[in-house]
Design goal:
2 copies of one chain form a homodimer.
Chain A (H helix, E strand, L loop, with lengths): L1 H7 L4 H8 L3 H8 L7 H14 L5 H8 L4 E9 H4 L4 H15 L3 E7 L2 H13 L5 E6 L7 H5 L5 E5 L10 E4 L1 H14 L5 E5 L4 H16 L9 E3 L4 H12 L5 E4 L2 H13 L9 E5 L4 H4 L5 E4 L2 H17 L7 E4 L2 E3 L6
Parallel strand pairs in A: 1-2, 1-3, 3-4, 4-5, 5-11, 6-7, 6-8, 8-9, 9-10
Antiparallel strand pairs in A: 10-12
The first copy, chain A, binds a DNA duplex through helix 3 and helix 5.
Amino acid sequence: MSVLILKTQKLNIKKIAELAGVSKATVSRVLNNYSYISDELREKVLKVIAETGYERNQIARMLASNRSNMIGLVIPTGAKFVFSDPYFPKLTEGISRAANQYQLILSLFLFDSHQNGIQTVRNIITNGLFDGLLITGDRIDDQILPLLINSEMPYVLMGRSIQYVDNINYIDVDNYQGGQIATEYLIERGYKRIGIVTCSYNIAAVDRFNGYKQALTDHGISFDPELVAYGDFSMESGGEGIKALIARQPDAVFVVSDTMALGALRVLREHNIRVPEDMAIVGFDDLPPAVQADPQLTTVRQPTTEQGRLAVETLLDLLESPGRPARQIVLPTELVVRASTI
Amino acid sequence: MSVLILKTQKLNIKKIAELAGVSKATVSRVLNNYSYISDELREKVLKVIAETGYERNQIARMLASNRSNMIGLVIPTGAKFVFSDPYFPKLTEGISRAANQYQLILSLFLFDSHQNGIQTVRNIITNGLFDGLLITGDRIDDQILPLLINSEMPYVLMGRSIQYVDNINYIDVDNYQGGQIATEYLIERGYKRIGIVTCSYNIAAVDRFNGYKQALTDHGISFDPELVAYGDFSMESGGEGIKALIARQPDAVFVVSDTMALGALRVLREHNIRVPEDMAIVGFDDLPPAVQADPQLTTVRQPTTEQGRLAVETLLDLLESPGRPARQIVLPTELVVRASTI
DNA sequence: CTGAAAGCGCTTACAG
DNA sequence: CTGAAAGCGCTTACAG
């Protein structure tokens, strides 16, 4: 039983080499699928490995090869939002799947405070543990991305940056277009006074806001600053936002995040305003079970899982060819209309 | 500028030692807060470190000290459920916070298939990378936990095991009690024909089911197998479950997971059965935004974040004292009644 | 309190 | 195709 062997003796490459009657180098070459090895020695080594259940010590391998096959997922957004917004679990799903596929170990870095995050990222950059980093970018005044830009650490941004545009690898969602199609959907249904609940410091929210303005202009509706409310992506703030708007009597509202849209829906229900009969709401994000269960909400869907997968693949590509020009991908969004609202 | 130095030369302990005019051993001791060092040398070393921005190579440290300060979070549940059930994000939140607090690096292991998971866990156990593992246990026929039990790898189970009880460290939620209070809540409100949507192979679901039976017995209501439906924790199955039950005309239903409860709610709405006026539903899990937004659902709340934190602390404790007797903690649950249902 | 040296378990030019 | 040996960057008895 290999289990017993594992318990009674520590296996290392030296022991395997002895058992197989070859050098450590040969064992290492077999393990690394090195091409020029005689079938005879390869067989011997593989046999011993199979019998003993030997598994390489990854740490020693990392030290010797200067490669860890570990990547970090850095989410500077406060933990509070990470776990209430369906975006992050979806993104993590895509990343995790791709990491499995490419045999990468994925470590998770979440922060309670921004200061905490800056220090941690500094460490990550210099401690030599990670081959590369995946980082989400959503705040306009992000302090963490610059650390990465000024370092040698390979990274891919999920989202985009306002200040830094050139020569950084990122996978973004076309939020501008998303804001447009959400707004156009409402316009096409005949609504004229279309309010918006957005967020002033979130890049995606700002992009969606700009798409909203563009759609209004394109359809000859003048933008009315009175119909704008600001939230912080929390459900509560979505509720507050729509409360503020109700006084201005919009006939439809585009809420730029699903979490805020849920808060808005709750407030509407408390006021007995039925949606979409009395007021149309369009939310924006992935579909959490909550929304799927609620046929009264139209949403814009973004390909978040895909975004995660592409980020991993881009990072891997960057590790292979360190000097290559930056790749920037912007993924389209899609309107999701429930059957019952058609 | 330390940044420039970092870019132009690789710093290592040898270089720091030279710069400070001491031995590598002394630098290492300063870095490790070793007690018996003269203030003079300590100052010198710290000065050089501050000036250069030197950061230890973690991999070399791991290899030499045989400790990585890395822990793995293993979630054998299929990725599909991980990201639709609010339980896992909540749990991850608690774990992540505690990992930060104790300076542990947290790696995430999710699997698409069970087979895939078994192989990965085998690797993790033998590759020497992780100090310990946190693993969720929910399936009755879990194949992965035995791998851990038969290994030297320290681990803490979040949930519990049916087959293995003795000498394993676990942090569970008192699902039996949760099932009881959910059912008693319905009984106290005067309902008699109380159905249940549960799951046959999930340990927590089975425990809740048993609590439900106990509550019925305690209140002189005989258990009726006709009022039981089975799902798989997906929203769809919750809907299917309640559809099957409706034919048996229950006057209330306890759905053992929130995700399934949401599916059930959706079906009820399609049939224009209002809750709780016409039928009371009690769900069980953490509160996702969805549920918070829905005042028509009573739920049982479990202290999931706390569960995550305790798991990390227990694992840490286990790393300090390898031989110590197993610690088993069972956390109580709590009924959450929305204002509007009172 | 401090340093020289061995060792952690691998990989990888180098020489053959 | 194969092996002896150096090296990755630390830690930690050991001796003083």
